[in-house]
Amino acid sequence: MEVRSEIFGQARYDKDKVALQGGQVIQRTRLQVWFIRVCSSILIWTCLVQLVAVGELWHPRLLNGFSIWSTLSARVEDAVPPPVILPPARNYTSNGFLKVSCNGGLNQMRAAICDMVTVARLLNLTLVIPELDKKSFWADPSNFEDIFNVKHFIDSLRDEVRIIRRLPKKFGRRYGYQILEMPPVSWSSEKYYLEQILPLYAKYKVIHFNRTDTRFANNGISLELQRLRCRVNFQALKFTPAIEALGQKLVHILQQNGTYIALHLRYEMDMLAFSGCTHGCTEEEAEELKRLRYAFPWWKEKEIISEVKRAEGLCPLTPEEMTLILKALGFDRDTQIYIASGEIFGSERRLAALRTAFPKIVKKEMLLDPEDLKQFQNHSSQMAALDFIVSVASNIFVPTYDGNMARVVEGHRRYLGFKKTVQLDRKKLVELLDLHQNGTLSWDEFSGAVRLAHEKRMGQPSRRKVLTDKPKEEDYFYANPQECLCDGTSCDDLLGPGNLNTTR
């Protein structure tokens, strides 16, 4: 019996072993079949792609009759983006290298980059990718390539100026080379750069402009160079794909909910400290702003009388003042308002009146998932780039202060077909606000006066105001680049006498 059991046990073992081996064989066979199928699919699609490519060259009549051919062609065309056709590189002998360090916030640096490209073109220089400000109030560590698409910037301007990513090593201090560092004179013309800067290249092969804000004049510049400034601003300076994608996501979310106003509420700590404007602040807040102003040596004006500046229209309007102004302009409580700014000084306490009057107030932090904004946190210029995209795309743009962001966005909106931009007359508005709040003007009188004062301040075509001896007070080129808003050499048809803006 024991022998018999051993025989049966052995038989069962052999049977299980065979079954196990058979299963392994089947599994291996299945893997082989799967592998063969994958390889065959790849081979077939490769052949089809090659066939389509050959077909594009030879257009065989036999294949043109089959719908599958057109379908495959369409799919391949969709999958492979068309090649980028670059303009031919400009052939010139470079007189040297121009290195620049931009100062200020995003939009101040943006305008400076446009100016420096134009200076490099004027003097036949090789431009090194600009360095961005990391020491200002915002202390943003972002480099040029963190905000702008470097490759597009270089490639799109190759027919005008040679741009390199970094200075050749042989010009470094390590090799004992001394670079001339200097700030060019503000509001300078072509003559200054040709007569004062260009001769310096005979001695110094590299010049470093360590300040770039407003170093090129608004007016008196040749049409060719003015249009180059526009080309850099409107075409060459694209944000990185990540910034563009998130900015367009914001725009899409807002547009799904209807039209929207972008309110650039420049009621932020740095602006209030710099301007000395404390209207509506507590004594403690006013003292905090004063301490901040004294902490930054390059903010030269220290002792400021806030009410005097406000009366002159030199202060950003407060959130409470903007509440009344928006209502006077005819916006109702269902208006969707996007707040394009950083942290409002006084936070939600100062936004309370505005939010009560206009419940549909949103900010990027409210519309996006925190994970979306994570990579941009602590990078003020990248966050400002998102606000820039949303502001340019808005149905109406309302800036509360005439700063760099407001002016550069206004210029973009003019370029895109004179999109509505409310250019607030702050001096007139402060006067009207005070009269209304002390009971002199009724609401109807106040709102009527506000509307009348802004009938011709909605971003319509207008000539840039020129003040030859007062460049700081004349209209800013990037807010109204009139030379770039028409096709001919003269914009008289667009900017006729009736459009002359004498109120600004």
From TrEMBL:
Q: Does the keyword Glycoprotein apply?
A: yes
Protein name per UniProt: O-fucosyltransferase family protein
- Report which superkingdom the organism of origin falls in: Eukaryota
Q: Family per UniProt?
A: Belongs to the glycosyltransferase GT106 family.
Where are the membrane-spanning stretches? 34-58
Q: Which UniProt keywords apply?
A: Carbohydrate metabolism, Fucose metabolism, Glycoprotein, Glycosyltransferase, Membrane, Signal-anchor, Transferase, Transmembrane, Transmembrane helix
Mode of membrane association: Single-pass type II membrane protein
Q: Name one GO cellular component term.
A: chloroplast
Question: Domain EF-hand, which positions?
Answer: 421-456
- Location of the protein in the cell: Membrane
The processes (GO biological process) annotated in the record are: fucose metabolic process
| InterPro entries xref list | EF_hand_dom (IPR002048), FucosylTrfase_pln (IPR024709), GDP-Fuc_O-FucTrfase (IPR019378)
Note the Gene3D superfamilies from the entry: 3.40.50.11350
GO function terms (MF aspect): calcium ion binding; glycosyltransferase activity
Q: Its pathway?
A: Glycan metabolism
